[in-house]
Amino acid sequence: MSWSNKYIGIPQADLGRTREGVDCWGLLDVVFREELHISLPDYLDYGSPDELEEISTLIDGAKHSPLWVPVSGPAMAFDIALFRRGKFSSHVGIVVRHGLMVHVVGTDQSKLERYDQGRWQHRFEGHWRHRLMADKYPVQRPVQIITEAAK
User: Fold this and answer.
1) What's the first-to-final CA gap in the chain, in angstroms?
2) Between these two residues, 149 and 5, which has the higher pLDDT value?
3) The predicted structure's pLDDT at residue 61
4) Which of 19, 38, 127, 149 could bond 75 through an S-S bridge, CB–CB 3.0 to 4.6 Å?
C-alpha cells in the first residue's frame, strides 16, 4: 500500500487546507504536514481557484524562494509537479512516482492520475523538491563533460 492511498477521495474545497476539503495546494499542505512533518506556506493570497493569474504569481514567487529546488532528473515521491492551466502556471500535483501524481482539480475529489501522458502531459512545466527533501535526497544537477578534444 502506498502512502498516497490515504489521500485519495478528499473532497475539493476552494482555499481548503484540511482533510475536510482541499484545493491543489491544500492537498500538498496536508500531505507534507502528515507524511513529512513539514509545514508549508498557506498561499491564501487569492480569492478563488478561477484567479489563475494571481495563483500563477504566487507559484512564480514560490519557485524563486529558497524553499523549492528545481529537479532536473527523474522525480521522486513528494516532489511537486507543476502544470499550466491556459497560459498560467497554476496547478500542482504531488508525485507518487515519476509520471504518477495525486492531485485535486476543479470540483473533483483528490485522485491518482498519470501526468506523463494524456491531458496533463502537454501542460507539465517541471518538478520541484522542498529544500528539506533536497538536503536528504540531492537534486541531480547537469554535469559538464569536457572531452579531450575540447581541452
Assistant:
1) 51
2) 5
3) 65
4) 127
In whole angstroms, what separates CA 61 from the centre of its chain? 14
Cβ within 8 Å of residue 53, ≥6 positions away: 88
Unique residue bearing C-alpha cell 478563488:
48
- 80: which strand partners? 94, 128
**What's the chain's length in residues?**
151
| Residue 58, H or E segment | helix 52-63
What single-letter amino acid sits at 141? Answer: R
The stretch 24-47 carries a mean pLDDT of 86
Residue predicted with more confidence, 150 or 119? 119
The whole-model pTM stands at 0.81
- Alpha carbon distance 4, 77 (integer Å): 9
